[in-house]
Write a structure and sequence with these properties.
mainly alpha; Four Helix Bundle (Hemerythrin (Met), subunit A); single chain; binds S-adenosyl-L-homocysteine
Length: 197
């Protein structure tokens, strides 16, 4: 029984991550057509991206393929899989909403595009970094879906490194470009959790 529940968690995670990429791909193609006029690419930001990718995709993907690290497995609970599936589904849904709203202003790294527009409504009305919120939710979902002390929490760790290595630089870049408009926006929003943080 426990073995098949664990397999269900892995399958749900796999479906979730594939769906995530299917959602991302068309936005990635479209956004890349808009010219970049300013950027804050750095080794720190590259490291941030790699951490996110490792924690949310490579470590859990390797675990699915090989079962490594097997010694870190723990018994799976049915409720954890249901909860994880729910959180992951909400994460991908919210990710799609933020991507749709951000549109051509999106970049995988810190960049300003030609005719860049400051978005402050829809998913951006209460928090400044809803796409990062969706990564946090994906990480949470992963922790419930994979009953392994390394592969499960890896997503939250990867998210945390990505977020904290990047957020100050991103906000500084937005302040430089949008000035008072972004300062006002910061005054009425939180970073990733509505009303809290
Ligand atoms: N931090 C945001 C966006 C992530 S994509 C989120 O979590 O939803 C990163 C790029 O988005 C940055 O290079 C920046 O140019 C752009 N960006 C960030 N916040 C934005 C906003 N409110 N409006 C428009 N572009 C934004």
């Amino acid at each position: 029984m426990s073995v098949s529940v664990a397999a269900a968690g892995k399958i749900v995670w796999l479906i979730g991550i594939v769906t995530w990429y299917v959602v991302r791909y068309p936005f990635e193609r479209r956004a890349k057509r808009a010219r970049i006029v300013s950027h804050r690419r750095s080794n720190l930001d590259r490291f941030a991206l790699v951490s996110g990718l490792l924690g949310l995709a490579i470590v859990p993907g390797f675990y699915l393929l090989t079962g490594f690290p097997k010694a870190a497995d723990y018994p799976t609970r049915g409720w954890a899989i249901v909860l994880g599936a729910l959180i992951f589904a909400i994460a991908v849904w919210f990710f799609r909403r933020t991507h749709k709203r951000l549109g051509r202003n999106w970049s995988v790294t810190l960049e300003i595009r030609e005719r860049h527009e400051l978005i402050s409504d829809g998913p951006y009305a209460l928090i400044r970094h809803p796409m990062y919120t969706s990564f946090l939710l994906m990480g949470l979902g992963q922790a419930f879906l994979l009953s392994n002390w390394i592969a499960g929490p890896a997503g939250i760790v990867g998210f945390a490194v990505l977020f904290f290595a990047r957020v100050d630089k991103e906000e500084r870049m937005m302040l430089e470009i949008f000035g008072a408009q972004y300062r006002d926006y910061m005054g009425r929003t939180k970073r990733i959790i509505p009303y809290l943080y």
